[in-house]
Request: fold
Amino acid sequence: MIETLVEPKPSRARLAASDGDARTRETRRLSTLLEVSQALSGTLNLKASLHRVLEILARHHGAVRGIVSVLDADGDLRVEASDGVSDSPGGVTYRVGEGITGKVVQSGKPIVVPRVSREPAFLHRAARRPELSHQELSFVCVPIVLSRRAIGALEIDLRFKPERNFDRNTKFLGVVASMIAQALKIHRLIEEDKRHLVDENTHLRQELRERYDFSNLVGSSGPMRQIFEQVTQVAGTNTTALIRGESGTGKELIAHAIHYSSLRARKPFVKVSCAALPESLIE
Reply:
């Protein structure tokens, strides 16, 4: 007689509980991603946004510590934001390929260390965790990728749990890192636009100064020399000047020369046609 041993099927109650836990986890992840999205889009202050994201991961994802590092103009990794780190590493830089985080950026692939205490590369980090020295920690680091190139890394410490699903954790953090990448892209575009505007503004102001410089005013007669002297005197003071003259005699040129030779040169020069305004409004 042959007996076949069949593993008992899980009960309906057990399956229902498992499905309920899965739905709860999924709801929590979606809620966390929504908060992350709101944090990244809620302000133009990049550091504040990133720090807010790390706080959200600490509150909803159990992150004990979190750090966001981004490549700077020199190609080094710079810590942009951190949470749960007693000796704040803000502004600290290290090279790509240096340490586990540097290797993540170099390879563009995530790295998971289930038990930090068993990883030699983390021995120097023990001093930064004095209050957690008695706890076993796990480390997860994912690249921040933009246009198929790693431009930074998101790393977190988690309390070690034997049953922890690191694959699920890595995928979730990968989504967060993608959202951070888009925020970094927008921030860089805004900063680039600002630089262009500042450069353009500086160029235009210089052009206006050159165009309305005294040297461009032609005249060597006694009355013109007197006007030049008066313009020089007025430009150095904070007073109101009345320029009188017939139409076409160059009153606007004199006004420009006064403005761009004065302490107000960096402020806008506003021209108003008095003939188009009511007398009461001018007064």
Q: What stands out?
A: The first helix runs from residue 12 to 41.
